[in-house]
Amino acid sequence: MNTTPIITLTDAAITHIKHMLAKNTQGKGFRLAIKKTGCSGYAYVPDIIEHPKENDIHLVCNDLNVYVDPECEKFVTGLVIDYVADNVGLKQKRLVFINPNEKNRCGCGESFTVD
Fold this sequence. Notes:
This protein has about 120 residues and is mostly beta strands. The protein is built from two helices and nine strands. Helices cover about 15% and strands about 45% of the residues.
């Protein structure tokens, strides 16, 4: 039996997402999906949602409702989501996805490939 968590959120990511939920009075949780796109194949689709989809995988991380699209489970198992300040260029704060399943990432960093 595989004991690797589907996704893990750092304290910084949880704090950021809870802040986003507080700003969106209709938001009930955080949902992660992926979609085919970009120059490498897939892109992460994080979202604040009002209602989970019927088959979403429900996780609770530090009192935060997290939903994962079951279609992407095999691509994201072991994923760590962090919230960091980017010290290059515009110095933006953003969610960062650290995925052990990624084999390559495009040059712009927006899409990735898996085996």
